Amino acid sequence: MKLGKSEQGFSLIEVTMALGVMTVIVGIVFMLFNRVQLTYRYEEAYADAARNGRFAVSRLEEIIRSAGTNPTGRTAVNWLTFVDFGGGDSSSSLHLMSDLNGDGATTSTLASNSDVIIASEDVVLRLNTTANTIEMVDNNDALVNGQHPAVPIAENIQSLTFSDPDTVNHSRKEVDITLTAIPAGIATSDTLFRQVTFTATIKLRNR
After folding, report:
1. Structural domain includes residue 155
2. What average pLDDT values come out for the chain (207 residues) when binned by 10 residues?
3. Residue 201 contacts residue 176 (beta carbons within 8 Å)
4. Is residue 10 part of a domain?
5. 127 with 145: CB under 8 angstroms?
6. Number of domains in the chain
7. Are 162 and 170 in contact (CB under 8 A)?
8. What is the predicted pLDDT for the residue at 158?
9. Is the residue at 96 inside a domain?
């Protein structure tokens, strides 16, 4: 029995064309989905870098503000250079000294640095360019293999500069910080790679 025109199915060519169109549409949908996922991953990494940079500035501010503490006014402490930029007015490391417990010296560590609680009277803040971390070195801590242990206080930091805004009188009452945070997991060669730069001026509480 012959089928009428209204009862005939799709031809092989029509089915093939329909499958081809569906394949193209599905491919476009997956491509857009992957692009959205990639964009989200990049934006999340940049947001993390921004948060990390703000945290680094906050930690540095907390540590630097205490430099120069001398509650007893002892002259044995007053003669010291509480803030040292490595002999100049700008450096990627900063040497800080204080008399936190008022004993007239700068040789005490009042808490363990294993908790990254800064309570040493003689510390160095520096950038580890190999690990892209900001480190705190407690010069009053015991030597390990001939060196004072370094405690990382911020990660994914590509550059760090400490400077004295008073380049005329060298009063060492303030410290300018410029740091650049980078996103984790994104190569610097990536065309979408970008950095986040933060600046801050920190006034020493006791100077």
Report:
1. yes
2. 58 78 81 75 86 91 79 56 81 85 72 55 90 90 84 92 88 89 86 88 77
3. yes
4. no
5. no
6. 1
7. no
8. 93
9. yes
**How many whole angstroms separate alpha carbon 72 and alpha carbon 198?**
36
Q: Structural domain of residue 142, as residue ranges? A: 45-203
3 state SS of 143 = coil
Q: Identify the CA nearest to 66 among candidates 118, 140, 116.
A: 118
Question: What Cα–Cα distance (Å) separates residue 181 from each residue in 34, 66, 154, 187, 197?
Answer: 27, 24, 10, 13, 6
Q: Would 79 be classed as within a structural domain? A: yes
**What region does 49 belong to: left with phi over 0, alpha with psi -120 to 50, or beta?**
alpha
Taking a C-beta distance cutoff of 8 angstroms, is the pair 123, 63 a contact? yes
> Tokens in use for 202?
């920190």
Task: State both tokens at 58.
Answer: 């906050």
